[in-house]
């Protein structure tokens, strides 16, 4: 794993700011097996991911669309456990820092009593750089935030299209690592275009000096370009990668495709960044969904 | 309503919690909607702004059929040698207590200017109640229902469709209630600005557990008045089944301050109280009796879960009790000793079903039959004056009861030869 | 009750007749039982001896769920541009007005020292009501039901069995209601000394038509009070469906002296009003509208019959209206112009079913849907303030409605795609 | 048809008293066809019937057991009408007078308006001697009774086991022809023994000076003997004859069997009468049902 903590507050901030425009990739650990996940993560790393989110599967993934739900079901059916997950993380050798994405109950239940600390400590020990919890809004986050602070992990918050006004200030005041900008209302899942809400959100967030990465629906290099052009520091891609995994007849087939996809997305992001530098005045028109 | 709030404060920490339970564990996108709802709940429900509660009560009377009777059960009283009264929520429009909540929430959504209603349903009782309320109040309505439940609860699907609701089958996982809730949350996260999600029990993120309880609290308020009139005093004990716990909290709420009244929440003991962690299965849904603390569907509460935090699949002969979670307020009331968690197994519930049908001429829901099963088993512990909530009618359960009865040798069942040909 | 008797005398010749209708056309063996019943009816029902009527009313409140609401139908009122109120007999225990009568008669049988209850049933509504009442009052109960009806109304068979009643399938003839009545009369003729026959409508020999009417009259009495309270005056018209006519007479009775209130009895027009004498079939059961005078099941009344006196088989999409006779009192009230006989066909009734389900969130019985179909067709004739009796709920009719809706192009139906798989 | 009205009030009374102990037989007209009925009635007449009841089928035979219900259904299915019935009667040549047994609605509907007179007039014209209406109790019988009186027909009343006290007096005061003593509660149908109620009823009726014939359940010569021994003037047999008709493969097979059955029953009745004359003191013990 890389260690670039110098001018930045954390590995994660460094991974995004230092590699601008950043590519953040997500896959579900254990889909279809932890061994395969290892190969996939390394492929994503090679393809140019600057930060990698690994999903620890939970039986009730209320924030996920059908693609990631199916991945989680496959991972659970393969017997993926938190301990297996941490061992995978320990085993991984990537340039990009790693984040865990999971639901709050998985974090609470890791120790012998419901408590967030054992999970956070284990995550830090395994070499993870941060945590994202899709069912943990800022209001309920203090215990986990404290534990992350104590263990040098970032706790990533999601900014939704509905996050506005005072609440936006309150959430932004807690952000560490980067702000996960939810591109549209709804759940995760590859979409064919970039939502108009993305532009609104990025505009609303422009006054906050934190890295912003946009996820939910990004699936192609061209989306990545548009999003970066709209002012994001990074793009987050998940379902599009899982589609590749799910549609491979043989798990090992997916490795090259994942690497290629990551490269395409990274190229797209770079294209967006170049447009920005070429023509900084030209704000692109939001595309209608 | 102000006195109720004071009473609540005795055991609520304020905000959205009951002791350690409750909270708002939902995706960020939903938080503004929950705050809007909390605000509407406080204004309309707690403060009766714009006469909301007056309209709610009028509609529950004229459309819903409130008050429901409190009936002395003559033959059960004789059988158990004590006074047994039944609260007849089975007579409410739609056939269960569910309408109290569904109508309250749909009306609230209307006051809030929402344009669309969504809800999850398991057995279909909450779905049909919501569809009825939405038709009555002219709101478009979509119901999410697991494919398995769609297939086994077809009459309820038809009822919802007749009321003009869309029914969306959910194919994920075991395709039952848990998955339907997940899917409804996903819809809500997509459409939250114009849509209200009518949660079907005292579960979910704050303010749902309190709000649903307040809509259901009329059950216990009526019982208090009715038993005073009929028996001249408060009961020694009050018994209600508990799935998510809405009929339970609705029945108990008014009695919580009455320390002399024992409160029994009867859960589904299923076929065994053991959890099979390996396969993620609990052959019961006795959450209060056997569950551990965790977060599910937006709230911290007692749950049926494996050691690593995966939620297990609950099982009960009664679809409406078949849920791995329970309302956070009940978890708290159990922790502080105010509510006694109990359970009866499938056989006892089936016997309870048959017994009430034969002795009193009331065919209870299989959910409610658990409370009646407990009455049979433990009547000696319940004092001289007992109230049991009959949360719904059993018409929906006939096929299940026939099938399950044929498999067993049940003491209270009639000989049910099926009329063939 | 004395005022009611006086009122009756205005159109009853005394004894057991209403004008030319009524009487006691039964086998000699039953006459002493009818006299015993008449005597019990006069003492217990009319004179409240031993507090019979008090007990009846108490039980109808606590067990049955009376009073049922009178609900303003907001959306129908808007649609028809007049005030429309619905009497919610669908909320009565068992799901129809039938319990008013069944409980009254079973209780009377108990007061008379009878040991056993028998009843006929067609769709199963009267059978289930009787089985519930018998279970409630601890009386052994046997129900006769045509084999055809047993097969197509299985849920009601199960409900009766769950309540501990025996269900005896009748194989004769078309094996529906008419044959079930014949068979119940045969049982009664055999066991008359210790058995009471609970007739299911205002039909049969005296004193049944009057007695059943009196047990059902609570419907109209409540409406009178409720509409006065809600609308400040009596309605311009009252609409009820009519099969045998028990919900009809129950609804109308209190209004008969109010000349300003128009009374509409809506029968099943079926698929056509013509009779096929050759095959002994009427594709309707519009007895009041098209029938001729004759004697059936113990009374002189209007009937569907061939010219030579054979009773024809009636037909309606609604099993509960599917009867070739009608109560003698209704025949008389029609003859003297006090009640207007009307009918709507199967299609209009199905549309009425769908319309109420979608607009008001109430799934009505197919029987009651005829009254709602009439409201749609003729609302302009009904004045500014209309009360419609919703005699029962439609849960029992879901399968039929689905099937019949699929065959037709109904204006008010939702698109009902069936969820397969 | 015979005409024996001399010392008796009517053909029917004469047929019973004059042939003591009398045999009264019943079959349903039109079962399985009116032609067959003609042959059957003549066979019953030859076999020794003193009075013959012919059923005019009605769709709702509430007083009949399964045997006669089935006969009625066959007759209706064969298209039996009142007019066909009367033509059959006109065609018949029997020693025994004929009675029609039918339900009240059939009588009411015979004319163009609901009225009993057209039926009664046609019955008299066709040569019938009386009418039995199982769903017409004495209380409702006045119109038909008047019409019968005016046309010289007997209206037969049934005395049930439940007919007692004042009601019995009232009914008996209206009896003409004979009193049809219902042997047991319930419906018609062949039974294996004589009901105890028969003895009670005959005892109750002993004070009335009218001929008494007992029906409902009589099926064998021995029953006939017992009943006559118990004090009846005649026995009435129906279902046992219909069983013979229903079980014949070919309708014409039934003719001889019916004649033989009538003869057996008449012999049985005579045996009963002889016992009475032999030993007038000896009242037989009621058999337990
Ligand atoms: C009749 C009835 N009772 C009880 C329940 C359980 O729900 P709760 O525990 O929220 O009352 C249900 C749920 O469907 C129900 O239909
Ligand atoms: C709901 C309902 N309404 C009406 C009827 C018709 O009967 P009646 O005309 O006696 O009211 C029935 C009969 O089953 C019924 O179930």
From TrEMBL, chains A, D:
Pathway given in the UniProt record: Amino-acid biosynthesis; L-tryptophan biosynthesis; L-tryptophan from chorismate: step 5/5
Region (Disordered) residue spans: 266-289
Catalytic residue positions: 53, 64
EC number: 4.2.1.20
Record GO terms (molecular function): tryptophan synthase activity
Gene3D superfamilies listed in its UniProt record: Aldolase class I (3.20.20.70)
UniProt biased composition (Acidic residues): 276-289
PROSITE patterns recorded: TRP_SYNTHASE_ALPHA (PS00167)
A cellular component term, taken from the record's GO annotations: cytosol
Keywords per UniProt: Amino-acid biosynthesis, Aromatic amino acid biosynthesis, Lyase, Tryptophan biosynthesis
Reactions accelerated catalytically: (1S,2R)-1-C-(indol-3-yl)glycerol 3-phosphate + L-serine = D-glyceraldehyde 3-phosphate + L-tryptophan + H2O
Family note: Belongs to the TrpA family.
Role: The alpha subunit is responsible for the aldol cleavage of indoleglycerol phosphate to indole and glyceraldehyde 3-phosphate.
Subunit structure: Tetramer of two alpha and two beta chains.
Protein name per UniProt: Tryptophan synthase alpha chain
UniProt lineage: Archaea, Methanobacteriati, Methanobacteriota, Stenosarchaea group, Halobacteria
TrEMBL record, chains B, C:
Matching InterPro entries: Trp_synth_b_CS, Trp_synth_beta, Trp_synth_beta/beta-like, TrpB-like_PALP, TrpB-like_PALP_sf
Assigned keywords, A-Z: Amino-acid biosynthesis, Aromatic amino acid biosynthesis, Lyase, Pyridoxal phosphate, Tryptophan biosynthesis
Pathway: Amino-acid biosynthesis; L-tryptophan biosynthesis; L-tryptophan from chorismate: step 5/5
Region annotated Disordered, chain positions: 1-22
Pfam families xref list: PALP
N6-(pyridoxal phosphate)lysine carried by residues: 98
All residue ranges annotated as the Tryptophan synthase beta chain-like PALP domain in the record: 64-392
Keyword hit for Lyase: yes
EC number(s) on file: 4.2.1.20
Cofactor: pyridoxal 5'-phosphate
Entry keyword annotation includes Amino-acid biosynthesis: yes
EC supergroup of this enzyme: lyase
Subunit note: Tetramer of two alpha and two beta chains.
HAMAP family assigned to the protein according to its UniProt record, in alphabetical order: Trp_synth_beta
Protein name: Tryptophan synthase beta chain
